[in-house]
Amino acid sequence: MTWHSLPDDPLWYKDAIIYELPIRSFFDSNDDGIGDLRGVIEKLDYIQSLGVTCLWLLPFFPSPLKDDGYDIADYNAVHRSYGTLDEFRTLVSAAHARGLRIIIELVLNHTSDQHPWFQRARQAPVGSPDRDFYVWNETDQRYRDARIAFVDSEISNWAWDPVARSYYWHRFFHHQPDLNYDNPQVLEEMLRVMDCWLEMGVDGFRLDAVPYLVEREGTTCENLPETHAIIKLIRHHIDRHWPNRLLLAEANQKPQEVRAYFGDADECHMAYHFPVMPRLFMALHLEERDAIVEAMENTPSIPDSCQWALFLRNHDELTLEMVTDYERDYMYLAFSALPEARLNVGIRRRLAPLMNNSRRRIELLMSVLLSFPGTPIIYYGDEIGMGDNLDLGDRNGVRTPMQWNGGRNGGFSNVDPGLLYSPVLVDPVFGYQAVNVEAAEREPTSLLHWVRNMIRLRRLFKVFGRGGIEFLKPANHKILAYLRRHEADVVLCVANLSRSVQPVELDLRDFAASVPVEMFGYTEFPRIDVAPYFLSIGPYGFYWFELRHGS
Amino acid sequence: MVVGIISYNDADTVGDVVRRVSAGIAAHAPQGCLVLADGGSTDGTVKRAESAAADVCPLVTVDYSRPALDPLAAPYHGWYGRAAAILSVLRAASARTAAACAVIDARLTSVSPEWMPSLLEPVLSEEFDYVAPYYERHPYEGAITKSVIAPMFRALYGVRLRQPAGGEFGCSSRLLQHLLDQTYWAAKDADSGIDIWMASAAAVGGFRVCEAALGGRTHVVKEDPPDVSTALGQVVGGMFADVEARAETWQRIRGSQTLPVFGRSRGEMTRQPVVDVEPMLDRFRLGFDALRDVWAWIVAPRTLLQLKALAEAPAPQFRFGNELWTQVVYDFALAYRARSMPHDHLLGALTPLYLGWLASFVEETCGTGDVEDRLARLGEVFEMKKPYLIAGWRWPERFRV
Lengths: 551, 401
Description:
The complex is a heterodimer of chains A (551) and B (401). Chain A has helices spanning 23-26, 37-42, 44-50, 85-97, 116-123, 184-199, 225-241, 255-259, 276-286, 290-297, 325-335, 351-354, 359-371, 437-442, 447-459, 462-466, and strands at 18-21, 54-57, 101-107, 136-137, 158-161, 166-169, 204-208, 246-249, 270-272, 307-311, 318-319, 342-343, 346-347, 375-379, 468-472, 479-486, 489-496, 502-506, 515-518, 523-524, 533-537, 542-548. Chain A has an 8-stranded parallel beta barrel with strand order 1-2-3-7-8-9-10-14. In chain A, strands 15-16-17-22-19-20 form a 6-stranded antiparallel sheet. In chain A, strands 4-6-5 form a 3-stranded antiparallel sheet, with no helix packed on it. In chain A, helix 9 (276-286) packs antiparallel against helix 10 and helix 9 crosses helix 11. The longest helix of chain A has 17 residues, at 225-241. Chain A is α/β, with parallel strands linked by helices and 551 residues long. Chain A has 16 helices and 22 strands. Chain A folds into 3 domains: 3-108 and 184-274 and 307-316 and 345-459, Glycosidases (TIM Barrel), CATH 3.20.20; 116-169, Oligo-1,6-glucosidase, domain 2; 468-548, Immunoglobulin-like, CATH 2.60.40.1180. Chain B folds into 2 domains: 2-262, Alpha-Beta Complex (Spore Coat Polysaccharide Biosynthesis Protein SpsA, Chain A), CATH 3.90.550; 277-400, no CATH class. Chain B has 15 helices and 8 strands. Chain B has helices at 11-28, 45-53, 82-95, 115-126, 143-157, 173-180, 190-204, 228-245, 247-250, 278-298, 301-311, 322-338, 343-365, 371-384, 386-394; strands at 2-7, 33-38, 59-63, 100-105, 130-136, 169-172, 209-216, 261-262. In chain B, strand 2 (33-38), helix 2 and strand 3 form a beta-alpha-beta unit. The longest helix of chain B is centred in the C-terminal third of the chain and has 23 residues, at 343-365. Chain B starts with a strand and ends in a 7-residue tail after the last helix. Chains A and B meet through helix 15 of A and helix 15 of B.
């Protein structure tokens, strides 16, 4: 029972629904063309109205912004464009008062090359503790088995620093030197950074690029035992001093490797399930369930207190690193007919354009997101069906201003349009005059209202956040059917991945005598018996049923 | 065992209450302790209480803070600061590891020593966790409870509790700890919702609930009673808020159970006051003329047409049927949850409808002695139509695609 306060539940993240937003893109309260903390505060009522329970704020720290803020120049402050520390504190308390938690980014792996630590390191003597805050080498030939993440813009993981007269290691952009976790002072500093934000009330951290903390020769420099040892120390620190706080691992790895980031429930509480996301899109395009079922069945079990984080789209490209070559080729052909939609190893598009703006397909994917085992993450703007802008470089096309209404700059800011951090979408299908919150609020049948209802429905049932999953495998492969179970609750989800009506016979004999109650309309369906249970489902249709025992 | 008496400037009644409660404790639970939770009385309440308890029962005084009065707020129909007072008693009971606790209002004039075993024995001997009072009332007393609160408790929370917001209560140490662990105490409208909240916490929290027949309840009224609209807004608003907060739970509850009644119950008093229904019917009809556009935002079109027919019906044919009333209450609950309009406007718009129901209830039951059966049938209909509420809750009518 909450009554407008946060429940004292160490497993709160299992029942959470997370809303991801970049402060820069959400709302500009001071009309300088850039979204800010005050803007988020002003829009908290909207966020609360969605029914989400947690905000994930993208980086808002001082930064040269060469990587959208993931190049941090000061971990303990707020970028002046976004506001002040006091405003951040206000945001946290205002969010908490609405029952919303806040998680923020913690970029452990690297800093900006403008960070004072790096500026100090490049001038410090070789072998000194200051120098050893980063990873240096005389040549660029160490750690050659490590892959390059941003293949479109970097040719090596080493960059020459003329001041240090040495190469420094960077797993991402060359302006983001990797911190050296072999130096214990680095971890000490990072724990101090965490304490600073936890003291201000944040409820957790998304640990960015966490597999790359430590480097060792002869390895891919990913997922090393030494990296897990660092994470264990961080978790120990959190558990000891900050109860009910969350660590969410961003480890774009195969599930078996991601599994290690949960440890024995002594590393991260949550981690993203990267492989399932592209396969949801693929299965929908193929109109058959196999890719999804295979991905989920290959998912290793995790400790009871841990949880997967699920998403359809986010601020990055739809990454295809964790799929097979065949699947990658298929995805490119199916979803990126425009070459400019491809970036690195992925597709830089939002949900609605990926679905050709098909409301039924968007709803179907959302229904899967909200009913699969894990905590769903909704990317800002996807709840109103916002589009993207492929003319903008890198991943900026999916980070355009939130479209609040049909007025100037889509209601995001009153500034001269030329001074916006990014142009608003103006195309006839996804432009702000066609897609915006105000219009969606006024239209009872809008995607926004639909998403709100779905979120509220999910929140009524703990089984979605806490239950296990069992796939039914009917003969018709266009049907995705699965059971969710938690304690005495059993929910049956059935989805038609195809564009035409489909029949399905489900083997529900284990539930003979139970009555399926369709959850949206609370409608009782015919009682189950030992014979196959027949349903027909319309194009891209889906049902959620509570299986109620007895009469 | 602890019995708490909550007071604020009750010097004229607290002595009698303490004497009777002390006598009850001395007779039935000699190890018991009396706790006076006082909100800073300036009329000598505490001294009177101490004097009355002397030599009979140990008395401990605890303070509670009455919330600052909001000059713009409507006067609360019950005890201002009641939530803080009850919290003080429960904390005192917890500190004394009491096996059972009861709470009594210092303004009561009808309390008797026999109330103590009625409220506490079910806890101490029968392992019940929550003992709700069941007062003898004339048929039209407590009509808001009869028309909305009790049937919603039955349909939603699965217990046929007839007076869920009755005032006095008994509870076990297990329930007491559960209540103390909750954050509700600091909620904005805790004063008006506290009794419903405690009863519902017991009903849906896996606690054993029963009723205790206490006879009649009379008390000294110190403030002007609020008008019906204010009282309705506070009580029904408290119920709707509780329903909203417990949505995850009540949508799983099926059916309802009757509760054991301890003590001798005579049920509803047979003496029926003469009630003139014409002013109530006038307000219903006036309400229809003035508020039908507002009601159209809240109730389903078919319901509105039925209300229109009712507004046009002559008095002898005026019958507010159970189905129609249930539909109205559920639609208002859904609108409350959907925030279709400010809550005070919404609850204000319920007043003429409630008066229409009350007029019909009086007409139907006057002289028939059929009150209990009539209310039982209403509860059945609330229970039968619960799927309508659940469906509307999960997928509001106005968002159908």
